[in-house]
Design a protein that fits this description.
heterodimer, A: alpha+beta, 3-stranded antiparallel beta sheet, 3 helices, globular, B: about 400 residues, Rna Polymerase Sigma Factor, Chain: A, 4 domains, about 75% helix
């Protein structure tokens, strides 16, 4: 079985991000990743840019609705993910709107930290 | 040599958007370009009084801005390849004095408009960013238009620029299948700028001419860069026809003058003629009718009424019918009821308004109360009219509106 472990954390204000505070946590994440790799349990992992950079795409009646910000819904739950390569946000929106899930749910686009 | 500061200000008004647009393309960084533009104009303020205005101020400002950005990047000691690329381009530009043809500037501005009006930005932020970046309004002026503090607005703009960079919002004119959809987003932003100026939502004054003129300027720009598009023509016509009546809409004391009582001699006939021609072009173009053009056609009938001795209400009611199909919103329904009251009398219109109120979900309740009050007044139902005026008064947001409603109530 493969499992996806989703990390939920309080977002820090980029302007006030304190390297000293984050340093030990960053080290812990590195050590955690190393441990997974050593045991052959690691598949992939990425950090995401803050939710203020998120864009949500829905398709209803063949029309694309693009909105600023992360997805918020009452009934829909996270059901999977695709990690894709796209030149810019418009290309990413194009990929999102052609995904079947966009027609009955929504696709949240989050830039990945590289 | 002395230089009138007004001249530099006029150049700023004219060139700020173009210079920023081109710098963004050259630098590929919204924030860096914005800084470079500021520095270029600051340098102009320093130097031009001594040297005079250069022959091509726009090219001068772009060159200075680019050099300032190169300095800045050097200081940061990052993006090394970017510096090399820019230096190479600057060297090429220096050898080729015609490196800034006008159409390239036009494309840059259009790119900037599409970036600022990208649907991945919050709609209110799209409007603010367009005013700041494309129109060159100061952050303070944009803050005033949105009734927020300057610092809060500056923050909002910085966040928007961060989203553009971090999320990879492109600095491009969208390709055809996407172009139509994105153009709607651009037109919505321009119309928001106009409506905010046309009916300011709170405070002492009802009209902000500056915002109306900015919106018209933007629409003209889009019309020039993407010619013969019925929806662009329709929007431009709509704004020209409404704005043509600006002088007649308020008394010298800032009181509201209703359309029927306005002095048509104060209307800008040149602007009306231009608007009428554009409506005609828009409505006769093949394809789906633009909702903006239908609204413009309604405004055109009002504009022609004095010359024809009467307002063509049956035609206006029919146009609202068309508009309702394109835009099924409560506000359009309310306007249609008003037009119908002028054709079939107030009784039936009142029924429509009451059923509209009963359905709920109406945002601008004061408009609904104003219409109800007027219909009740015309039906001679004084008591109910007074109650409706009172309800309208409670919801009214500007001083001129309040004075107008108080006066109407006193006349009952």
């Amino acid at each position: 079985m493969q499992y996806m472990l989703l990390v939920y954390m309080r977002e820090l204000d980029a302007g006030r991000q304190d390297q000293e505070d984050l340093g030990p946590v960053y080290q812990e994440f590195m050590a955690y990743t190393e441990g997974l790799k050593r045991r052959g349990q690691f598949i992939a992992s990425h950090g995401l840019k803050p939710s203020s950079t998120a864009t949500t795409v829905k398709v209803r009646d063949g029309k694309t609705l693009t909105t600023d910000g992360p997805f918020s819904g009452d009934r829909e739950q996270l059901g999977g993910y695709f990690l894709v390569e796209a030149g810019d946000l418009d290309e990413a929106i194009g990929l999102a709107e052609s995904m079947p899930g966009a027609r009955f749910g929504a696709v949240e686009i989050r830039p990945v930290r590289v | 040599m002395s230089l009138d500061p007004k001249e530099i200000e006029a150049i700023y008004r004219r060139e700020a958007g173009r210079v920023l647009a081109t710098l963004i393309r050259l630098l590929d960084d919204f924030e860096l370009a914005e800084e470079a533009r500021q520095e270029a104009f600051a340098t102009a303020l320093e130097r031009w009084p001594a040297t005079g205005v250069p022959e091509n101020p726009r090219a001068w400002l772009v060159d200075v801005g680019r050099n300032k950005a190169i300095d800045q990047l050097r200081r940061r000691q990052v993006f090394k390849s970017k510096v090399l690329r820019l230096e190479k381009a600057a060297a090429e530009a220096a050898q080729e004095p015609t490196a800034h043809p006008d159409e390239a500037f036009g494309d840059d501005r259009l790119r900037l408009i599409f970036t600022c009006c990208h649907p991945a930005l919050n709609p209110a932020v799209q409007v603010a960013l367009t005013l700041r970046a494309v129109c060159g309004l100061s952050t303070q002026a944009v803050a005033r238009a949105f009734l927020v503090g300057e610092e809060a607005m500056a923050q909002r703009l910085v966040r928007a620029q961060q989203k553009i960079r971090e999320a990879g919002i492109p600095y491009e004119i969208p390709e055809p299948p996407l172009l139509d959809e994105r153009l709607q987003s651009v037109l919505a932003v321009i119309y928001s700028v106009f409506t905010e100026g046309y009916a300011v939502t709170s405070g002492e004054s009802l009209i902000s001419a500056e915002l109306c003129l900015e919106a018209i300027r933007l629409a003209r720009l889009v019309d020039a860069l993407l010619p013969d598009r019925p929806d662009v023509q329709g929007l431009l016509a709509l704004m020209l026809l409404h704005d043509a009546r600006r002088q007649a809409r308020l008394t010298e004391q800032g009181d509201i003058v209703l359309l029927e009582q306005q002095d048509a001699a104060l209307w800008d006939q040149g602007q009306i003629a231009e608007g009428l021609k554009l409506v005609e072009q828009s409505l006769t173009a093949p394809g789906r009718v633009s909702a903006y053009a239908v609204q413009a056609a309604i405004a055109a009938l009002h504009a022609r009424a004095p010359a024809e001795g009467a307002t063509d209400w049956p035609q206006i009611a029919a146009l609202y019918e068309v508009l309702l199909r394109l835009q099924p919103t409560p506000v359009v329904e309310l306007n249609r009821a008003v037009a119908l009251s002028m054709v079939d009398g107030p009784e039936k219109a009142l029924q429509l308004v009451d059923s509209l109120a009963a359905r709920g979900g109406f945002k601008d309740y004061h408009l609904l109360h104003v219409v109800r009050a007027d219909l009740l007044r015309r039906l001679g139902r004084q008591q109910e009219a007074r109650a409706a005026y009172r309800a309208a008064l409670e919801a009214a947001r500007t001083e001129p509106e309040k004075r107008f409603l108080e006066q109407r109530m006193a006349e009952l």
